[in-house]
Amino acid sequence: MDVIATRKEKVIYRDGDSAIKEFSEKFPKSDILNEALNQSRVEETGLPIPALKSVSVINGKWTIAMEYVEGKTLEQIMEEDPDNLEKYLNDFVDLQLEVQSKKAPLLNKLKDKMNRKISSLSGEIDATIRYELHTRLDGMPKHNKLCHGDFNPSNIIIDNEGNPHILDWSHATQGNASADAARTYLLFALKDKKLADQYLELFCKKSDTAKQYVQQWLPIVAAAQLVKRIPGEEDFLKSWVDVVDYQ
Fold first, then answer.
1. Rounded CA gap, 63 and 36, in Å?
2. Cα end-to-end distance, the chain, whole Å
């Protein structure tokens, strides 16, 4: 078994011309089937993503098989070639805007997903802040653009011909593109605040979006990320879950 990556509750390995994502016994079956459904629905938009091959049980574990793409992640390429970081960031934003230009009307709605996540944070955020987050979320404009939900350079494979392929559609929804941009900003900021700011400037310029509008989403997406309870992120995320910062 040629292991490609290991994540919480899942292992991704190569088997010939397929990439197999194997889930642990603890992983909810409904989430696995929803991820496969998301991928097939996004595949129908014509975006460059690995083709879904099958959903099956192998050695007692649920798996999703998809086309294997030979290449490097954009994250690897950016780290190996820092002199061309601006070019890669431009390509990254262009690809995100291509995603957001598509529609997949059968996907779950982003607002519904965010509301569920905020409601689940009773142990981390007090009721007053949760109420303010729900109120802010309900007041944000409703859109139906395709949102990846975890759009970052580690989820983009550049193949040997230089073509991009977008991975991991488990969090895909339809909703407000600026929410997806705020999520990407936060993922950058968890590692490199300067690069996060560069990304946001570029996204807002290319999409003709006010920076303040994207920033309105930051407390909401920070709360949604908090649900993952990743060690080392809690204090940083809670500093963003302050609904008065950008009012």
1. 10
2. 51
